[in-house]
Structures are given as C-alpha cells and as structure tokens.
Amino acid sequence: MKINLAALLSLSAALALAPLLCVAQSGNGLDNPDWTEEQIPPPPSFSKDKLIPLDMPPHVSVRVGVDPETIAVGGDGVVRYVIVMTNATGSTNAVYEGIRCISDEVKTYARLGASGQWSTLVNPAWKALNDNMPSRHAQAFARQGGCQNRLATSQKEIITALKSGRKPGQDTKVN
Question: What is the CATH topology of the domain spanning 44-164?
C-alpha cells in the first residue's frame, strides 16, 4: 500500500489542531467576545486525606495539595478545584478557585479559614496566573497538570497528570 506523504501530513496537522478547534467551537476561546463564565457552584467539600501534593518552590513553608474529587472542568472551559494548605503546626486553610486555561487567569471564589466555614468572595475577579501574587499555588496547579497548552482537559487527565508529575498528553516514552 502506497502512502501519500502530503495526505499523511495534512491528516497529522488536522489531528494536532482538533483540540483547539473544539475549544473554539465551544465558545471558550479568547476570540469569543460573548464568552461568559457559568454560574459558579458552591464550594465543594474536600478531604485532607486524599490530597495530591503540588511541587512548590523551596521558600514555601506550607504543604500544598489539591483534592482530586473537587476538580471539575466546566462547559465554559474553567477548571475549578479546592487547594488545601497545611503549615508545620497542622493548621489548615483552603481556597476554592477556578482557572481559565485559555487566558492563563485564576479567580478565587471562596476561602476556608480557621473557623472551618467557607467565606465566599463578593465579585471575585480574574487575575493573571503570572501576577506577583503572595502564593504560587494556582500557577503550580496549572503547570503541573491543571492545564495543558492553555487548554482545560478532563478531570481524569488532570488527576493522572498531577499524580504522575507530567502534563496531560505528554509522551512517557524515553529514548
């Protein structure tokens, strides 16, 4: 069977662009001026026993992890999750956030403090993931599996990437 190289290259290019076309068709692309965020669900319950740890810079003194059961990918292209931070004395804080992978932005919806109650933010705003924020946990989550090439994948792919320490879709083959 003779394979036409031009046809093979065209097919490869189409397959490589398929995820981007799906995002554009779903209305979540940056070129869509009518994009709106879905109604934000209330903060989900989380378990400190099931956290997937995030690699943080050495100067960060708290342990940071994400409860995989709280990860949800919305139809609006936003990945929502709960991050849990534990200090050396065992004190725990948590944040309920969303990342819009396509625009590299994060939004904090609620914080859980020492009282154990969620405090919902009024009119939360999108902020650049690369802003000079006091904490880099959102950026760590996005880079360690929450987003792939500025796209939101599925909950399963995100969890797999976070657990394996590689980005979703990254080839595991070693030469």
Answer: Lipocalin (2.40.128)
